[in-house]
Design brief:
Chain lengths: 145, 482
Amino acid sequence: MKKINLTLISIATIFALSGCNDTPSSPEAKIYTKTAAEVYQQSCIKCHGKNGEGNTKKKSPALNDRQAGELELDLYDVKNGGTNQSSGTDHDIMEHNMQKLMDKGYDYDPKAMAEYIEKSFFNKGTVKSVEDAKPAVEPTPVVAQ
Amino acid sequence: MMKEGMELIDAHFKNEGISRRDAIKMFGASGAAMLMASGSTTEAKASSSVKAKILIIGGGLAGMSTAARFSNSLDNPDITVVEPAEYSTSYQPGQTLVGAGIWTNEDVEYKRDDFVPSGVTLIKEKAVEFDPENNSVKTSGGKTLKYDYMVIAAGLKLDFARIEGLGISDTITSRGDDSAVRKVIGQNGIASIYFANGATDTWVQMQKFIADAKSGKKVKGLFTHPNTPIKCGGAPKKIMYLTDARLREAGARDNAELLFLPNGGKMFGVKEYHDAIVNQFEARDMKWNYRHNLVAVDPVKKVATFNRHWKEKGAWDADLEEYSIVPRSEKIEKEFDFLHITPPMKAAEEIANSPVGSSKGWVPVHKESLQHVKYPNVFALGDIAAVPMGKTGGSARKQYKVVVNNIISMMEGKELEAKYAGYTVCPLITSIGTVMLAEFNWTKKPTPSFPLDPTQERWIWWLLKVYALKPMTQYGMLSGRA
């Protein structure tokens, strides 16, 4: 039995290493009931503002200061509670809120939402300071060099 | 130590009814087959005759593999790699095995100069200034380098300085000058496999810990995981599993308490693997306590301070139509005999703070094409790229082909078609002789390459880890083929 396993793995290794199966299987397509624009206009807008400018009083960060690639990483973090095995999330509060919002039907594809926010707000509204762009919770400490 | 490790492996094989010679023969054969097959089957595309000046920042696994694949794919390559570190192409995944005394540093240390692809110009300096508006980079030696396409693969820095009480003020890389850190990490029961000498010192500290336990002393080992993205997300647990295995081997497990203290609230982002790890921890009497972030260490008193954090119900939020949540935290002190630190990690300052960086430091790219969000002729991959998960050699192995394909497409005036799907692999070492091969991608589902239940610990994955992955990386990937 062990011999069979070893043979199997060496064959599989050759296969994997030869690069012929490198094309990833396409992720299961998830159906969202609302478009990114609908979710933003019906829900996100309440705290992040009609120009994505954020709301300091509610500690909601601005979203109009970053482009889609950067936003998508944050949205991924929010929806998945982190981007790494056990590091946790940069968005402790929003991770919790997002679960509640998803229960209410405000779910979205992070890529589509990031693109919508960039297209609608990036470089269009008031330019926010870097301070406001930081997440409200546990800002990353800056280390003096 | 290597000999001892090999004897252990032999003993394990013997139990399984297989000789080491047979195992090596198998993997040797598959390695050779890989190299023979690769020339014809894995070229990125048909050889392209387009010309452009390609600048690669960083000559580690990601950068050097990218350079090699460009060199294989272009008729007239004009490729420059900027890499200051002499041992940048070392086999980092082996540091876990060094930390547990199974390998030694000699098994994982590889000289950069032996892996520079032919025809590639190497500049042994650091890139210090980025001017992407003018397609230009300045080096530590004062050179100005112009490019048509730039690939940023500069890796990341270990930020022990963020932990108070250690007296460390500089960030370090996993290889190179570590004097700022080694004076305290690797002493007094404090260890970290995340830098090369630290891995060697980890084994020394671990042996002392085990000797204490064996002598009858009740000892306590703590294993941390920070609040930043980290490279090799599994290593903080792997070194704990290996400590457990070494204690058992010494017959001293009952005298040791082992505790995993991660900042996050789960073992793994993929539920199937999370559940499997929880079961493995329970089976080994390895304990854990979520939402603890290491913030300070007193190396003399052997006390570690953690920021323990949790959430409490707050006031009604009319916008959310839910109760709001209030973050709470407190400082918790824990004594230790052995403390394995996984340090906070970040992008190098000179890149993070440049126009190609971002508010979080990592180079912001579109996560599928790996193209920079602001500068279309700039790409990033490896540890420094701002993509979810990733930060493993296995991710880089998928990413470098995407970057090369997409840049060649751009050079030829075509659409960017190559896409990275978030593939990451974590060969989670669960004991000396078993590994759970956790493969996954952004679907957050297991994506096994082999038709076997991926949540099982298996000895064949141990063989893969110990015998096959290193040659695959050093000779397959760094030559731009596998």
